[in-house]
Design goal:
CATH superfamily of the largest domain: Formyl transferase, N-terminal domain
Helix content: 25-40%
Number of strands: 15
Structural class: alpha/beta
CATH architecture of the largest domain: 3-Layer(aba) Sandwich
Distance between the termini: 53 Å
Number of domains: 2
Strand order of the largest sheet: 5-2-1-6-7-8-9
CATH class of the largest domain: Alpha Beta
Length: about 325
């Protein structure tokens, strides 16, 4: 339930994806007056193409928050409505890029929660690229919004290690919870006038662009570690894929087998109870996978229903 106390900063929360729910929840749990939640318009989804709302809208509705769903963030009536709410702080988590006319409506500032240790991995897919690139740690950052995306002054950061077999989905869930704590702390610092934002080092910046289909192809002629990192970095969505006899197969979990010698890249080394595939310098065991149009399965179950032989190979 929204608290309307005049003594605390009035907050407008902007978010769409599930990643933002813990941050919205922690603000409500701590009795901050969330005067509105801005999220994406409902859109058709699924086979029936029925209208579906965002995870943030569903959560906000359950907590009786006022919800705004502008088609365009530059819409004049939306901006006027935002101004009429007299927000002190805009909190942005997993949302669209805000134009200046939106983020300048907040009297005490607007900040974003980003799922990387900025300036590393600026862009739409920071978790995925951090894992694909074999990073050993990642984290979250709150930063003040500026017109250029992901470049604003940093308020707070928190770090976590990335386990050698952890997937993007597992890191996503950890960061959403840690991020909520950082969002709360950031709001408190702004509320008390104690935030000390620090500039990002542009020379240390790296990119994390949107993931496209070509990024999801498994290139078996790369090292075992690189193949493994791509599989787990794209799990569970959108999923790394390979092709076998015209069938697209997505792979979600794997592990590096350090003691096996490589043969031809993509060659099947074992396909009984385990599925083992050769890479450039060794092999990976595929633990969880899915044939297109079928259910996701553990390798042993998959191999009972899909014929693979040792002489077969996945396309590079």
């Amino acid at each position: 339930m929204t608290n309307t106390s005049d003594s605390r900063p009035r907050i407008v929360f902007l978010g769409t994806a599930e990643f933002g729910i813990p941050s919205l929840k922690i603000l409500l749990d701590n009795q901050y007056p969330v005067v509105a939640v801005v999220t994406n318009p409902d859109k058709p989804a699924g086979r029936g193409q029925q209208l579906s709302c965002s995870p943030v809208k569903e959560f906000a509705s359950q907590h009786q928050c006022q919800i705004l769903q502008p088609e365009s963030l530059r819409n004049v009536s939306f901006i006027e409505q935002l101004k009429s709410l007299q927000p002190d702080i805009l909190v942005v988590v997993a949302f669209r890029i805000l134009p200046p006319e939106v983020f300048t409506t907040a009297r005490r500032g607007a900040f974003n929660l980003h799922a990387s240790l900025l300036p590393k991995y600026r862009g739409a897919a920071p978790i995925q690229w951090a894992i694909i690139n074999g990073e050993k740690e990642t984290g979250v950052t709150t930063f003040l919004l500026e017109e250029k995306v992901d470049t604003g002054n940093v308020v707070l950061q928190a770090r976590i290690p990335i386990g050698e077999n952890e997937t993007a989905g597992e890191i996503h869930d950890k960061l959403s919870e840690i991020g909520a704590e950082i969002v709360l702390h950031t709001v408190r610092l702004i509320e008390m006038g104690k935030a000390v934002p620090k500039p990002q080092d542009a020379a240390a910046a790296s990119r994390a662009p949107k993931i496209f289909k070509d990024d999801c192809k498994i290139h078996w002629d790369r090292t075992a570690v690189e193949v493994h990192n791509r599989i787990r970095g794209l799990s569970p969505r959108p999923g790394a894929f390979t092709v076998h006899q015209g069938n697209t197969i997505k792979m979600y979990r794997s592990r590096v087998l350090k003691d096996l010698k490589a043969t031809r890249p993509g060659g099947i080394l074992q396909a009984d109870r385990q599925l083992v595939v050769s890479t450039k310098d060794g092999a990976v065991e595929i633990i969880e996978l899915q044939q297109e149009g079928k259910s996701k399965l553990a390798a042993e179950a998959f191999l009972r229903g899909y014929r693979l032989q040792v002489r077969d190979a996945f396309l590079p």
